[in-house]
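Lecture notes, continued. The same structure-token format from the folding unit now serves as the input rather than the output. Read the line below as a description of shape only.
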């Protein structure tokens, strides 16, 4: 039995798991949170038992990782590698990589592309290398799966030197999730993934939809950053690019303030004026709240339009796939989206739609094209890649 330590380092948090690479089950999960603050702490769960411990005031990543090392040391595990989630791999990384000095330099060269995500990821990698010096460390990139997108799909219609000199193009994110659910979907369809065409909607707090042709990513709704595309919990998704300066002028905002508004105050939260949480909005909509109803309608409409346009990209479609917290659990959202696609031959079976929730996979279609609900497991992709790549080395 082989275990992998899976780490996801953010600016003030480190999510961790010890995962069995054969089964995809995590025997230990936890998060070090509020790093850099007075109330920094680690919460973790093993064998159904939750625990929490305080970290030193203003604890940094290094201190958090040494606590995590102790927690993992006391846990009955046999870790053979550490897998790190890294959000942005630019064009350098088309697959996961064994971390050495040159990989760290390459991650550093992507800092300007993901200033909120990649610097803490590298800090986490360096701290983890000190905490687990005898294990191989592997970086798994959210962008890597989408490095097969053709140039005509990833270029923005901007002066080409912006791409050539500054790497400004569409990259796509949620790659590990789209990779995982597309493989699971092909398995459910009993088809080789290399011959399977899918449209996968990952709907969580962040949302993206991917066009997958013959098993490869050929388009995706997220772009240079994870802001583009679908309506999300707090992100606006697609927008008239002029609005950046219009909002700045109208509200007398700096570019950073406009960015914060588009990333943190928009989406379902901005539209509803109430919450970014789909469950809360569904309850409010059910109770007659018109802002919640409209927020959910905009969300579904944008997704339905993307699915329609990606049918142009994939060619003959084998299935639509729903995943992520909303995609896996919200029968309401799935039914609303599919009802907008009825004239394209999609339909939903009400009983199957209600059954495929809370971790249960299934085909919810009443039409001829399958509509699959597939619970995602990004950590398993990271764990499997960590073993595969470290064994190749
Ligand atoms: P994630 O980022 O994948 O954890 O997904 C978070 C989103 O999933 C939030 O908007 C939740 O409201 C939503 N979600 C989780 N469970 C349900 C549910 N039973 N019904 C509707 N939305 C849900």
């Amino acid at each position: 039995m082989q275990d992998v330590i899976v780490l996801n380092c953010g600016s003030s948090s480190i999510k961790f798991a010890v995962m069995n690479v054969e089964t995809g089950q995590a025997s230990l999960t936890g998060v070090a949170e509020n790093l850099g603050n007075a109330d920094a702490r680690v919460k973790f769960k093993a064998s159904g038992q939750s625990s929490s411990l305080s970290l030193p005031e203003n604890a940094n990543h290094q201190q958090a990782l040494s606590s995590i090392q102790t927690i993992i040391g006391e846990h009955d595990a046999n870790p053979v590698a550490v897998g790190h989630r890294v959000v942005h791999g630019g064009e350098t990384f088309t697959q996961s990589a064994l971390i050495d000095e040159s990989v760290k330099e390459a991650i550093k060269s992507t800092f300007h592309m993901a200033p909120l995500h990649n610097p803490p990821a590298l800090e986490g990698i360096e701290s983890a290398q000190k905490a687990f010096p005898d294990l191989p460390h592997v970086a798994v990139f959210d962008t890597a799966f989408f490095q097969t997108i053709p140039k005509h799909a990833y270029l923005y219609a901007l002066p080409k030197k912006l791409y050539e000199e500054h790497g400004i193009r569409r990259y796509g994110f949620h790659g590990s999730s789209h990779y995982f659910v597309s493989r699971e979907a092909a398995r459910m369809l009993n088809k080789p993934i290399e011959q399977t065409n899918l449209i996968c909607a990952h709907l969580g707090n962040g949302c993206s939809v991917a066009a997958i042709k013959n098993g490869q990513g050929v388009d995706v709704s997220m772009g240079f950053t994870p802001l583009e595309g679908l309506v999300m919990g707090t992100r606006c998704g697609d927008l008239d690019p002029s609005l950046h300066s219009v909002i700045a002028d109208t509200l007398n905002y700096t570019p950073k303030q406009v960015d914060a508004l588009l990333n943190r105050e928009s989406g379902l939260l901005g539209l509803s004026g109430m919450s970014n949480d789909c469950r809360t909005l569904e309850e409010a909509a059910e109770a007659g709240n018109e802002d919640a109803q409209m927020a959910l309608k905009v969300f579904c409409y944008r997704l339905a339009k993307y699915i329609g346009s990606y049918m142009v990209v994939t060619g003959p479609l084998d299935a639509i796939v729903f995943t992520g917290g909303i995609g896996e659990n919200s029968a309401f959202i799935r039914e609303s989206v599919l009802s907008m696609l009825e004239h394209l031959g999609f339909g939903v079976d009400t009983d199957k739609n209600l059954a495929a929730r809370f971790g249960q996979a299934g085909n919810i279609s009443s039409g001829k094209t399958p509509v699959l609900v597939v619970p995602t497991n990004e950590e398993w992709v990271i764990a499997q890649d960590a073993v595969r790549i470290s064994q190749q080395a």
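Point for the exam: Residues 190-378 form a domain with the Nucleotidyltransferase; domain 5 fold (CATH 3.30.420.40).
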